[in-house]
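User: structure tokens for this one?
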Amino acid sequence: MSDQDQQPVFSIEKVYVKDLSIEVPNAPAVFLDREQPQINVELNTAGTKIDEGFYNVVVTVTVTATQQERSAFLVEVAQAGVFQIRNFTESDIEPVMMIGCANILFPYAREAVSDAITRAGFPSLQLAPVNFEALYQARLQEQGGQSAESPIIIQ
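Assistant:
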């Protein structure tokens, strides 16, 4: 094998929406309420090996809005991608998935969330950018430096 065969390879094979759902359980009454809703955002990132050198990464964003203790809407988007990740050390693959791949997928998820909320009849919501590296490092510290196999969730 030549040195070129051992060079790290990273490529996006496919970006897709794995799941998209929206609920407006208290419509149409919720549209008459002028109170600004309380917004809660949860972020979950997970990755799995699907074949030799190929990994599936899913960034799930759940946005819940409540007004006066009742649900205004709930949006969940699971934005996924298939990535080719080769010639990385075993210890580098997880950070590539949880940081690099998540950074690629998040803008797609953010757009899908905003579009779904607008289509449900609510004002557009732009999610703030996310520092996946900081989230990954924080998760590693929580787990005592071990692999961050469980999903990363922020609220």
